[in-house]
Q: What sequence folds into this?
């Protein structure tokens, strides 16, 4: 029986080697890489056969191959990824801004899930959920102890299915159940408002397929409310990025026509590109410029861009373009430093490969990778400073991160010292009552960084950070 299993395993290994050889030939035909070495292919096939025939219990062949591909890609850098059927679906939802769920923006508070805001028109909105409501149970599962991602997965599901949420409303001091029917949700990546006469704030939380259209709509609303805008704050804090064409479009909304927004460079000819502030570089439909109805004043209105350690990828492209062309003052903290391009290639009807194919460069030719955008004005997140900023992960902290390609990276002992101090402060902060630990929401009246941005637009003195460390690829420096 054992011998029969081994023979079967080697037959499977032979078939596997045949598949890999075919892939190798296809790769050669594509003209991008040399043929894969046969000796290593045979080793991979041999391991596959041994695991299939000798492992303590039967293993699924498809899972073995899927895991092998995942491991191969994961060894490249933190952003390359193999998508199986489930993860490919989730990825598509993230870029389209569509998913099936109840329609709430959430955060965590004291171990529970807090409703930041119900999405207008969503099932949660119609069910009467309000900001600051706390979700204590999802169906029969207690929320305390669940991660934010686990809670999200439990609230999402198939369209027209029901989920029971148990809500605690603090201001009414009562707990009550709400049954909500899931449906397709379109997320809102753009928020904005007139902060005071003459000054407005627009926040982009992600660059999705709908972001440009929603941005145009929000700008039109603001200019209708206040046609004589004297200053605008574009808030990209904690914006993890998204679609390149959306970033080019948002940059083009503020820049002169045809100036360079970003360039890319990689191994493939198609990875060597220059993207400019012109419709052909961002429009999704031929002959249709989504920016055509923007008020002309947007090209010249004084502009401040807010960024922080959570601003990554597409948001760094926008900040870098507006900074290099001296169109905006960049304020906040040094950005995340994700300056690499990922291309998604379908491997079948429901699987795919996201692979890093190039680096991003600002219009001046500076690599964003593992460095990020250094603001013109360093500003803290609160009047007391940014006590926990040093604990936030940046691209340069990620294992196997891609180098900038513009010189060696330097070690930063000052940053490690700052992290130790931040950990101690965090321990003390955790001892405080929950109500004393709340961080002001972006766009709120007590949003310190936003207040400094508005002061800058008015020509008033700004409280500049005295403690932030700038991470540089070639030298270490401290702002004073």
A:
């Amino acid at each position: 029986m054992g011998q029969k299993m081994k023979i079967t395993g080697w037959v499977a290994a032979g078939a596997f080697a045949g598949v890999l050889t075919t892939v190798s030939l296809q790769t050669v035909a594509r003209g991008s890489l040399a043929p894969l070495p046969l000796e290593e292919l045979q080793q991979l096939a041999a391991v596959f056969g041994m695991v299939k025939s000798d492992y303590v219990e039967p293993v699924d062949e498809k899972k073995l191959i899927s895991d092998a591909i995942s491991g191969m890609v994961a060894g490249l850098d933190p952003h390359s990824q193999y998508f199986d059927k489930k993860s490919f679906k989730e990825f598509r939802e993230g870029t389209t801004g569509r998913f099936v769920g109840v329609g709430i923006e959430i955060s965590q508070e004291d171990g529970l899930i807090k409703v930041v805001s119900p999405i207008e028109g969503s099932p949660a909105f119609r069910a009467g959920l309000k900001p600051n409501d706390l979700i204590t149970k999802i169906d029969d599962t207690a929320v305390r102890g669940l991660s934010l991602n686990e809670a999200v997965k439990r609230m999402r599901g198939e369209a027209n299915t029901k989920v029971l949420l148990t809500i605690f409303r603090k201001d009414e001091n009562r707990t009550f159940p709400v049954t909500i029917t899931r449906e397709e949700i379109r997320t809102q990546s753009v928020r904005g408002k007139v902060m005071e006469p003459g000054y407005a704030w627009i926040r982009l939380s992600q660059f999705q397929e709908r972001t440009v259209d929603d941005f145009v709509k929000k700008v039109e609303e603001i200019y209708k409310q206040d046609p004589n805008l004297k200053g605008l704050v574009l808030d990209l804090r904690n914006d993890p990025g998204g679609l390149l064409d959306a970033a080019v479009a948002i940059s083009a909304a503020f820049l002169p026509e045809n100036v360079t927004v970003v360039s890319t460079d990689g191994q493939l000819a198609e990875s060597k590109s220059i993207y400019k502030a012109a419709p052909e570089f961002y429009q999704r439909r031929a002959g249709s410029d989504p920016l055509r109805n923007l008020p002309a004043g947007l090209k010249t209105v004084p502009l401040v861009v807010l960024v922080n350690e959570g601003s990554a990828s597409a948001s760094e492209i926008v900040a870098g373009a507006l900074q290099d062309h001296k169109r905006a003052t960049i304020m906040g903290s040094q950005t995340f430093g994700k300056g690499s391009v990922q291309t998604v290639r379908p491997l079948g009807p429901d699987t795919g490969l996201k692979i890093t194919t190039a680096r991003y460069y600002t219009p001046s030719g500076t690599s964003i990778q593992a460095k990020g955008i250094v603001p013109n004005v360093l500003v803290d997140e609160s009047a007391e400073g940014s006590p926990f900023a040093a604990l936030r992960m940046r691209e340069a902290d990620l294992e196997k991160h891609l180098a900038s390609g513009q010189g060696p990276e330097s070690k930063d002992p000052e940053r490690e010292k700052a992290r130790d101090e931040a950990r101690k402060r965090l321990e003390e902060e955790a001892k405080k009552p929950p109500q004393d630990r709340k961080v002001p929401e972006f766009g709120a009246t007590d949003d310190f960084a936003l207040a400094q941005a508005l002061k800058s637009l008015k020509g008033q003195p700004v409280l500049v950070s005295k403690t932030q460390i700038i991470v540089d690829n070639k030298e270490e420096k401290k702002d004073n």
Summary: The two ends are 75 Å apart (CA to CA). Residues 1-32, 473-480 have pLDDT under 50 and may be disordered. The first helix runs from residue 2 to 30.
